[in-house]
Amino acid sequence: MPGVPQSTERVTAAQSAEVTDLDLVRLAQAGDTEAFGELVERNRRAVFRAALAAVGSPTEAEDVAQDAFVTAWRKLSGFRGESQFRTWLLSITWRKAIDRRKALTKWLKLAASASRDEAGDDMFDIVERIPSSDRTPDESLESHELQRDVRKLIRTLPRKLRDALLLAGTGEHTYDEIGRMLNAPVGTVKWRVAEARRVLKRKLAAMGYVDA
Amino acid sequence: MPNEERGRLDAAIDRAVRGMMQVDPRAGLRHRVTARLSTSAPRGSWLVPAMGTAAVAVALVLFWTSTGIPKPQPVVPTEIASARPSPAPSAEASQPRARQVGRATASVERPRRAPGVIFDQGRGRIRAASLGRPIQLDPSVFPGHLDQVVAADDMVASPPTIAIAPIVLQPITITPLTVSALPIRK
Asked: Are B92 and B132 part of one and the same domain?
């Protein structure tokens, strides 16, 4: 394959911009861990945020991301290039994340029942502990309360609506990728996102917030 | 659509979702992943040899079992064929399952046993035969049972014909372990 480095060579930063994901996959299939490392670098954010949308905790999401990459490495010989590597990888990631979420849900139910009296939180308050990257010190108290209420309401959304809304909000995934992850048509994904927003606004209005 | 035009609640939802989701993984994820790769080879690197080895093993077992390893069957002798001269070496090849071993005996003349002691007191097993000449049991009468013949020490035939059973590998049957609860002592 012209332009593709041999498996014994290392993919340098300069080369990586020219080499496609499929080229790197072919090298990785031949056992080149450096090529696979480049695939990890290219997709780490998308994989991590997909996992985060499912499990809600950055720590858990990173564990899921690592597991997803290692699983992809093991199954790499079965990847035929019929779909994009990134789509295939995200499907693996989502399955891993859902498995982790199921396990976490069981665990959190037990943990929350013990700590609910002290903290007054529900079992999904783990999402609340995600650090916010866009809060500014000059946010008003009202805006702060609105943000807190929106996050709480997002946690109460039905899972199908919440998954679609959060995945669409990562800034890393297209609707097509989200549809493949959720095993739903793109139109359905868009409807779920819009429906999630409608539900949130209706509940916020019921809490007294005005959509000015 | 800019947040300013979408309304306050829409903007709040967008900001909340961004705050929850636009988080980056810790630095060094690539190295942590590649460190784990060294302990987990791609499946294709070992799956093919493993499957090949398993297929060869299965084929050997099937071949072995289909080549007719004799299964031990109970011996119910009804009669003994008439004694014949020692078989020629070529005749031995016609009975591959019963290897015959000649036995050197002393040329001391001993009295013959009565025919009644040929059988082992009704236990259904040929015990001994005192014949003046080596015998050859008719395989049509004792199909697959020649290996059950046991030579007696007092056999005086020269040379006696002894059929030695080949080693028969029988499948091991493992009885499933039944675990039952222990009685509770109070």
From this structure: yes
In 3-state terms, what secondary structure has residue B127?
coil
**A108-133 residue pLDDT tens:** 777 766 665 444 444 344 444 444 44
- Tokens of residue B182, six digits: 């222990």
Do B112 and B137 reside in the same domain of the chain?
yes
Confirm if A73 and B35 have CB atoms less than 8 A apart.
no
**CA separation for the pair A158, A199 (Å, rounded):** 10
> Do A87 and A108 sit in the same domain of this protein?
yes
Model pTM score: 0.56
User: Residue type for B126, please?
Assistant: I
Domain count, chain B: 2
Q: Which chain B residue has its CA at the smallest distance from A196's CA?
A: B13
Burial class (CB in 10 A: 0-12, 13-18, 19+), B86: middle
B127 near B134, Cβ under 8 Å? no
Q: So what's the ipTM on this one?
A: 0.76
A 122-161: CB under 8 A from B: 127, 130-135, 143, 146-147, 150-151, 154
Shortest distance between the Cα of B179 and any Cα of chain A, in A, equals: 30
Residues B61 and B79 in one domain: no
The 10s digit of each residue's pLDDT in A10-49 is 555 555 567 899 999 999 999 899 999 999 999 999 999 9
Tell me, rounded to whole angstroms, the distance of Cα B109 from its chain centroid: 46
Q: Which domain holds residue B105?
A: 72-167
Nearest-by-CA chain A residue for B41: A74
The string of DSSP codes covering A162-207 is HHHHHHHTSSS--HHHHHHHHTS-HHHHHHHHHHHHHHHHHHHHHT
Q: Which residue in chain B has the smallest CA separation from A47?
A: B25
Any CB–CB contact under 8 A between A87 and chain B?
A: no
Domain identity same for B7 and B89: no
> How much is the pLDDT for A46?
95
Put simply, the answer to whether A33 touches B37 (Cβ < 8 Å) is yes
Q: B126 by DSSP, 3-state: which?
A: strand
